[in-house]
Design brief:
Blueprint (H helix, E strand, L loop, with lengths): L2 H31 L12 H27 L17 E6 L4 E6 L7 E4 L2 E6 L4 H6 L7 E4 L6 E8 L1
């Protein structure tokens, strides 16, 4: 897989998410300042609630903007079968019953999913439980995904 293409897909998704979040923040801000929402008594809190929503959406937009800049400036590292997994690694995992997963270790926005040539790639961060399990490992080693009886073992089959 081409990591440059994966970064491009992540940037495209973040750009879209930022536009949606920005529009939502503007809409909530307009609702909080609309003359129809001026409270008549202390129990009418629609404007206050809308201002809280607007602030939360503006904060999320700032988080997405930071992530977008981080991915635009990200320097991709090269890996081979003997390399230890670290930031910017694209890791293929194989479990029993022919289950597989592909993850990209990025600086921010863990949980984001992008698809490249019918392969779903999940962005994880080094701070996530799976990220912590993968950092420092190499091809051939095993990692657990999940905990307790619901956890599954996966083998690291490729790192690029």
């Amino acid at each position: 897989m081409n990591k440059v293409r994966i970064i491009q897909l992540i940037v495209e998704q973040l750009t879209h998410d930022l536009a949606v979040q920005f529009k939502a923040a503007i809409t909530a801000h307009e609702a909080s300042t609309d003359s129809e929402n001026i409270p008549d008594n202390k129990y009418e809190t629609l404007a206050l609630e809308a201002s809280y929503v607007a602030q939360g959406q503006a904060n999320r937009a700032q988080d997405i903007k930071r992530a977008l800049e981080a991915y635009k400036q990200l320097t991709l590292q090269q890996f081979d079968d003997g390399s230890s997994i670290r930031l910017t690694a694209l890791v293929s995992l194989a479990g029993d019953s022919s289950t597989s997963r592909t993850v990209f270790i990025g600086p921010l926005e863990g949980g984001m999913k992008v698809t490249d040539h019918l392969t779903e790639i999940v962005v994880i961060t080094p701070a996530s439980p799976l990220g912590r399990s993968l950092i420092g490992k190499t091809v051939g080693e095993m990692v657990n995904i999940g905990s307790g009886s619901g956890g599954k073992k996966f083998e690291i089959v490729d790192v690029c």
